[in-house]
C-alpha cells in the first residue's frame, strides 16, 4: 500500500497506519479521519516513510516516494539489506529504470 499527499490521509482513515511508522502532509490532516489512531507513529519529515509494506509521503516529496516504491519493486516487496549507493548490485538494479515526471497543472 502506498499513498502520497492526501492519499496518505485517506489511508490513515482506514486505520491501516495505526500500527506502522508513517508520514503525510500533516498530522492534523490524518486526525480529520475518525479511523485514525496512529499519532505516536507519525513522522513529521520531508521524506517518504516505508514500514511493513506501507509507504507514505507528504505531497512535497514525490522523489523519495518514488524511490521507496522502486526499491520495493526491485526487491519483489522484500526489504533488502542496505547497500552502498555505489555498490554493483544497486547500479545493476537501477540502471534500467527511468522516471518521467509530468506536471498535471489545472486538474
UniProtKB/TrEMBL annotation:
Protein name per its UniProtKB record: Uncharacterized protein
Cross-referenced InterPro entries: Class_I_gatase-like
Q: Where is this region: Disordered?
A: 72-93
Q: Which organism is it from?
A: Pseudorhizobium tarimense
Amino acid at each position: 500500500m502506498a499513498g502520497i499527499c492526501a492519499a496518505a490521509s485517506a489511508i490513515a482513515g482506514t486505520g491501516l497506519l495505526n500500527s506502522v511508522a508513517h508520514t503525510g502532509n500533516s498530522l492534523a490532516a490524518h486526525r480529520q479521519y475518525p479511523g485514525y489512531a496512529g499519532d505516536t507513529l507519525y513522522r513529521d519529515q520531508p521524506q517518504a516513510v516505508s514500514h511493513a509494506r506501507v509507504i507514505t509521503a507528504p505531497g512535497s516529496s514525490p522523489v523519495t516516494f518514488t524511490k521507496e516504491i522502486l526499491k520495493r519493486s526491485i526487491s519483489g516487496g522484500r526489504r533488502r539489506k542496505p547497500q552502498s549507493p555505489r555498490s554493483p548490485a544497486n547500479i545493476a538494479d537501477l540502471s534500467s529504470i527511468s522516471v518521467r515526471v509530468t506536471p498535471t497543472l489545472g486538474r
